[in-house]
Batch of 4 targets.
Target 1
Amino acid sequence: MTIEELYKIYLDNPNITTDSRNCPKHSIFFGIKGEHFDGTLYGDKAIENGATLAITENSLETLQKLANYHIRQLKAKGLKVIGITGTNGKTTTKELVSTVLQKKYNVLYTLGNFNNHLGVPLTLLRLRPEHDIAVIEMGANHPGEIKDLVNIVEPQYGLITSVGRAHLEGFGGFEGVIKTKGELYDFLREHGGKVFLNTSNEHLVPIAKDIETIPYIEGKVEECNPYVKFSFSGSHEDVTCQTNLIGDYNIVNLLAAATVGRYFGVSDEDISAALASYSPTNNRSQLMKTSKNTLIVDAYNANPTSMAAALDNFKAINATQEKMVILGGMGELGPTSAEEHQKIREKIEAVGVKTVWLVGELWGDCTFKNVDEVIAHLEKEPLADKLILIKGSNSQKLFKLPEYL
């Protein structure tokens, strides 16, 4: 069966599933083989459960080709596609951009962390002719991954939020991070696309040569105690916006969204209203007030760049409660792990927080070996009347802590 023939079947059966237990009417099942499962064994079960068609051979490659063919058809009819990647801030930026654009357009955007070789094609195959703009997040932890994803997505616009010291083990060092994220720019350069560019980022400007760029509009943080209040250059006068985001480092993400909105004709009033309405989820810079403490929970991910930024922001917050930090280890740093963790220890000292709990053996000399030890301690000796920053890689599972604080 050719992709063209498969596409005709897809148009009549546009529900894509990779779960043989969940095969709604008019669905196509793709049996994907993963590290802990083998969907190729469940084609017959998928048909029994209602799928019109089950694909179990070369299924991932076929899924990716079908997604690419689909988005090409929609682009030919006017769909605009924005590809977003970056070390830090890509998910928040994706959601902010989408929130702004939804003020004027029918937008489809990546849900959750569906930003890899499987999640991206599944996202593209949710697109329908009524969508005006697609905002697609792309993640990577090895060289070449962004290139592979961008060749499926084929965006006309691109945005790299940042390049930082994350996944150094997989990328082979910081230069590998820059090169891999820059694969988005490489595609746009080759295909006449456009880049939304943070012109103050010393790592992004050099790799954006020979591409049409749309510089971020100017803006600044007005207040961050703890929520970010910022202003940006409006069409006629500066616009001030109170957000629900924690962390002055989010200013670049907010300005990115405002820039994209302005480019696509969203009014300053609607840009401001959209950014003011957005509230983060999934343990990304969330402010939580419990009966005992106030928490800043940023436990979805952590790397040296984002950890340092979170600590700087925490230092700047004026608080009546005593401050403390609970930090999980930072994974995938390879040979530089001990050095990077030591730098964060030094950063903590500079912040001047008295109570510091380091969780996980990646710290070397840690306070607790794992989150379960933290929970056991809290059950015996509860904390009260504190402002607590909780940050660590998702693998450290610090997201379990709020209910005990």
Target 2
Amino acid sequence: MATHLNNSWDALLSSEAAQEYYTALRAYVWQEYHTHTVYPPMDRIMSAFAYTPYEQVKVVILGQDPYHGEGQANGLCFSVNPGVQCPPSLVNIYKALEYDLGIAPTTDGDLSGWAHQGVMLLNSVLTVRRGAAQSHAGKGWERFTDAVIRLLNDSPDPIVFLLWGGYAKRKAECITNPRHCILRSVHPSPLSFYQGFLECRHFSQANAFLQAHGRDPVDWACRSQADWERMRGATV
């Protein structure tokens, strides 16, 4: 849970990490990792911040809490480790991406290529017990990540916030700066996917907003770490 990320988040999060609630949260999470199986691995809890420095954030996708199956969670919301089967919500995100931009689905669920490009993949709760969804809810993570959203709200650069599902939509109260864009939809889970998520076209809308405000669009086809390395190699 250390906030020593070697990027701009260190200074921005220092005052939050010094607060009493965060000290209690750290103690709780430490105890959980030493008495239960908890995901993601401890060194991946802050991955969303490590991959995407504050000044590089262009898009924020908000999740609720990490996947609670073995080997799935990697600290980026909706993302899983390479070689792990894509969960249903991620399968549906890929379907919506194909519907919107014609980008074919893949079996690779690693989304770190998005994170490298400025897509912050942020869960509201950053840890979870194995097999127990929302088991770490209400312990302090929500206060911490709400503070993060407010910091992003203060960014001088326009950001697109993708709020999928009722839980994420409630976070809109933290986003008050008119320079930003909020796109709302139902959640990509199988329960609500065909109630509007498939046709939401958030990927193309996000890029249109970014380009209209002088920011580079996201290459949504560059999803994984391997994709990112290939793209970087092609531009050297």
Target 3
Amino acid sequence: MGKAKFKLILGRRKNYPLHLELEVYKGADCRVLISTGIVLESESQWDNARQIIIKNSNAEQYNKYIRQLIERIVDLENISEKNGEPLTPEAIKMAAKSQTAKGEDVFKVFARYVEEDKSIRYSTKKQNLTFIRAAHGYIRYYKNSPSATLYFGEVSVNIIKSMNQYLLERLGSRSVYDIHVLLRKQFRHAVKDGLIGGNPYDHFEIKSCDKKNRQGISEAHLGILENIFNSKGYTNAKQEVVLDMFLFTCYTGLRISDVKSLKKQHIQKEAQGYVLHKRTIKTGIEVTLPLYSIFNGKAQAIVDKYIDSEDRDAIFPYVSRYAIDHYLHKLGEMLELPFTLTHHIARHTCASLLAERADNPFVIMSVLGHGDIKTSMRYIHTSHKTAAKKLEAIKWESDMTAEEIAQADNDLASMCDLVRAACEKKKLSQTLTRFTLGVVNCNVDKGQLIADWIGKIRKTDYSIEAFGKRLEMLVE
């Protein structure tokens, strides 16, 4: 008897969608029709002459599966002949059942890729596994089953698009962007391993999140969040931790990575209260914050809620990034914000509040742990209220009369000549503080005169010693 013959048949039942079956024929006693599990949308996706699938996003994967299925049956036939046994329909069906056209479980494979990646830190692995679970959550929702999963043979660009919309309704744009970037990378890995014919992200554009949205929430919104647990519907323990972590950043400016890694050893109790000492993860800069005084001790009150826990060394209980983004997204919707609420916005909020109160970028630089003052300047958002306060503080008119100003100009001119002579220089620096310091050092009487003149403008009484020290500090 000759070798077994194989033929693929599409749409034998003449109904849609079209199922692809494999006919195995080896004599009248051994004829079997096997369902491949492959379903095509139309006859245009099938080339009957060449017996291959065409014009289908999973064509390469499906054709590879069919070849492997036939090879498996051929191997079974060779083994049967070697053992002197006939090839039976039951044996053929058993061989077909041991393989599926759907391929391997996408999420199990991706989780394995993450676990085996030695180039990333443990914290990054946990974050990536959380992203994979978020994508898996969409499949459970899509298939309406808690045990549902996704196989490589089912992957299509339409599923990616639908998942994108699902995630955007539940997470911030930054998290959705990170999830897509991770999935794209893992699909590339799967293509190299031959688990899927092509990367669905080749036909899907990942939209980058808006990094220019540098703004914080208002004090009114901050007040609502501070009192939110007095309202109904927000009593979940995990939600409370997420909100406390967000508020803690509003009061301290710490990044989410530093808040999550904050331990009891970073908090020292001194006479006045708690002081935070921590080296930031991103920049490695040592940050020291008096929690008892900053924003009237609100940060210390939050630490008090968690620091006495005996079951962990960390201040805050562990919450995944997915859960943080999810709950903050819901809080942002409750506040009706025009942008997505993220943990990083808390950092901007801290900088904005400090800018209104301290009006000193170096204070912001110290609190936020920046290595460059230019970075701190990006966090300062001048509100209409802040601008109005600064404009009101400007002295638009001088208290001196025209005669007094003219006399002061004459005094300055004579002092300038005196300093030139004393310093034996033809030209004097244009810096007022250096000029005045020269006057003070060269001629006490003249120095006191100019100290009185500046003191009159600033409504401050300067002694010659105090004025000289102030000038030296400015010059240095």
Target 4
Amino acid sequence: MDYFVMKTDKRLRRLPQIQLPRAPFETENVKTSIVYVKEHNGLSINYADYLEKPGPMIADKFQKILQKYQQDMVFRRVVLVEKETGQQKPYYLMIPSEIICADKDESKYDVRGNVQDFVLDMEKTGKRKIFLAKDYNSQLIVRLDVAESVLRREANGIWFEPVKVSGRSK
């Protein structure tokens, strides 16, 4: 099976500047958090369907799709609001499992122990379809079927980079 790192498309230049408050997400009874974003010097903001920072956030229209693929993943609703225009964009903060999944023999590390060339050990994923690779800068990794499902729905601003998988030469 193939896996991909899910990223925000680097070609988008005016992404929303977001600072998520920590406290609201630690409480189970909070259903939605409102977060204010600023315009870029009067220019409109490019809202990608996936935002990597400050945490993995997916557009409202993709939340149910991802929930079907990874039913135990937790989502927290976040509404991004532009103060100047009042425009609102609904997202979900994704809280997937964070696992150590690098193949220790095939991955390459620097002198500090940071992964330089990540190779996924598929057996360590536990058949998860969506997860954070703790030993790869907590990158969001998705299985091929998840990536295909997102792309079929004309995702805006989502980029998938292939991940090397142990036992294969790429």
